[in-house]
């Protein structure tokens, strides 16, 4: 019974990972990050349509379970949380990420470790820079940004056409949504700065510039990974 519950949590807490169609010199995990509603899912579908990603999601095992650097990252998260359920899910996400690095190809991950642990990674880079570098080794980040007004319009459109409102967006005014998204994008910008300071690859894309530009930039970014 215990194993069944563990497997259920592992599968439910995993990220959506897709193999990159074009080969690179090394295996990388590319975290796609951005505020809720900016269009990450739509972008992934477009990357699949343009044969940059494969359509089938990766199945990631859970053989590896030990990593001192990720354990320290989780301890930072634990210091900020009093909800055991959330902490448990974060632990599963870290485990999933650890095993994803065993995959012998470059993969793009929707809302991966850099998305889920943005604040903790920034703090880790200050307190334990060696652990930060260990976690970021063979990792890249694609950071989506846009004007708060554009994100708000996407949120409204989703609500009108699909009848869906994410929990982050419920009961918020347009001004509150804008402040929320500015804060989220600010935290991600800080992580990107820390990555650049440590020499890790990242790409920040302004969604306002259009889908074709985004696809071209991502395609070139993946090919340039060394």
Automatic annotation (TrEMBL):
Top-level taxon of origin? Bacteria
List, alphabetically, the InterPro entries matched. Answer: P-loop_NTPase (IPR027417)
Q: Which UniProt keywords apply?
A: Kinase, Transferase
Question: Mind listing the GO molecular function terms for this protein?
Answer: kinase activity
Q: What is this protein called?
A: Ribose 1,5-bisphosphokinase PhnN
Q: Which organism is it from?
A: Halomonas fontilapidosi
């Amino acid at each position: 019974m215990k194993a069944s519950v563990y497997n259920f949590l592992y599968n439910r807490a995993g990220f959506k990972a897709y193999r990159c169609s074009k080969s690179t010199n090394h295996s990388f995990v590319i975290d796609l990050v951005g505020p809720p509603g900016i269009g990450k899912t739509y972008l992934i579908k477009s990357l699949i349509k343009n044969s940059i990603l494969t359509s089938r999601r990766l199945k990631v095992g859970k053989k590896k379970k030990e990593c001192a650097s990720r354990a320290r990252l989780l301890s930072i998260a634990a210091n900020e949380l009093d909800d055991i359920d959330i902490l448990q899910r974060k632990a599963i996400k870290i485990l999933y990420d650890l095993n994803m690095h065993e995959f012998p190809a470059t993969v793009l991950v929707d809302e991966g470790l850099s998305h889920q642990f943005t604040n903790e990674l920034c703090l880790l880079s200050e307190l334990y820079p060696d652990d930060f570098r260990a976690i970021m080794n063979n990792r890249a980040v694609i950071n989506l940004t846009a004007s708060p007004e554009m994100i708000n319009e996407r949120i409204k459109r989703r609500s009108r056409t699909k009848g869906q409102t994410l929990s982050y967006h419920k009961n918020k005014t347009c001004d509150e949504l804008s402040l929320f998204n500015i804060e989220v994008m600010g935290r991600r910008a800080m992580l990107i700065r820390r990555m650049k300071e440590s020499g890790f690859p990242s790409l920040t894309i302004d969604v306002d510039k259009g889908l074709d530009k985004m696809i071209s930039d991502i395609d070139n970014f993946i090919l340039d990974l060394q």
